[in-house]
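Q: I'm writing up a methods section and want to include an example of the input and output format. Could you take the sequence below and give the corresponding predicted structure tokens, formatted cleanly so I can copy it straight into the document?
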Amino acid sequence: MTDFDVIVIGTGISGACIARELTRWRLSVGVLEKGYDLCCGATKGNSATVHSGHDADHNTLKGKYNVLGNAMYDQLCRELSVPFRRNGTIIFAASPAEETELVRLKANADKGGVPGVRILTRAEMDAMEGTWGSDVRGGLYAPTGGVVCPYTLTFALCENAARNGAEFFTNREVTDIRREGGRFIVTTPAETYRCRYVFNCAGTHADDMNNFVSRHKITIIPRKGSHIILDKRLDPYVRATLVQTPSPLPGGGHTKGQGIQPTMDRTVIIGCEARDVADKDDMATTPEGLDDVLSYFRKNWHLFPISRFYPSFPQDLVIGAFAGIRPHPTTDDYILGEPEDCPGFFNMAGIESPGITAAPAIAADLVGLAAARYGFEPNEAFDPIRRVRKPFRDMSADERAAAIAEDPDYATIICRCEQITKAEILEAIRRPLGARSVNSVKMRVRAGMGRCQGGFCSPEVVRILSEELGIPMTEVLQSGSGSNVLPYEAGIEEGLS
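A: Here is the clean output for your methods example:
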């Protein structure tokens, strides 16, 4: 049995923020993740939006923490060297009913303290973003809306927490939690942990964790949403995040509205629809989900300013798709803090959209509450700064020459689509909580996320992982256990050459 002061369950955005906040205090912190790597659940399939807070009900925890979390992003991303951009959000109306909804959203934003939100006339919209479709009547502009890469941020938070003393354990699915002698006993198939405090950040499984220890049961419904990724050549034509005022979807379900947005990596994301599903870990795309997104954009592409340059939906520029799973609580609001019958057990449950935005503020409040209640001592050695090199693709010619002079591996491009070098892949493997599979490399540095989707670079990534980890190429995994990329030894060198 391994002892810690605190166990954190989950390494999505919630667990990552909590782990980093806990290392501000003199505590031994263990972080358990059921997946093969960090950030394998809801956060991985996020749309990358930092929401302004205009649509979250101002009377709810969602509304409160959306606004507070949004305000933290500039400093947080500076400290962690994570790219972030406030590109603004425009919610547009294409009917009188949608115009009425914009007025309601504006009133909600004002009551919630969302900065700068205003109603736009059609002329103002055209001046701001370019000519919209003839059916567009007006819009709502939220200037504090932004974009961030959710998994880049989550890896950065976890890495900073690890450098400040937190210990991370993957492949640790929690199967039981019980109280014993004033401590929590947290059981996984691999190991058992004992601690004084637990922070429950288990995403779609947060209800299971709570229900192990509390009579006050909660229920989380997994809600899936599909997104489609478009090629970088569309990036110059998409600046703000553009979303139609929400209306019922053809297949049913709940969503903030279908929209189009840029990403920090210059691809463009469209989506999403939403459907309740039974499997809490089901992140597979489905024909029904993708058809909902495609049918909306084929029908409504003309509404968006980009249609001036691409008059019909550019099917040939689709390079990928993904689905995300959201932990929707039946309370329809975040579930935070200690159940009254289980002191020391802190829920951060039901953190669905705008969870990426809200998580930093929730974590700061929850850990601050625990510190005050239980007398945590400050960690004077806490360092909030994460130091990383600028990506090669973003370097100037002089910066590239200097990087290559210092490390010749910068001269070897492994992923042509994303301009990822061998030096960056090696760094992703060698950093704290480094990559141990092809997908782990992909998530950390984007090798394989470009137009060819890894067709060129994947074999070289396999070779680098094999050499760096000191394992045969047949043992290199695509993702988790059993996902060996090359199941046979014969012909490996020929196949990779």
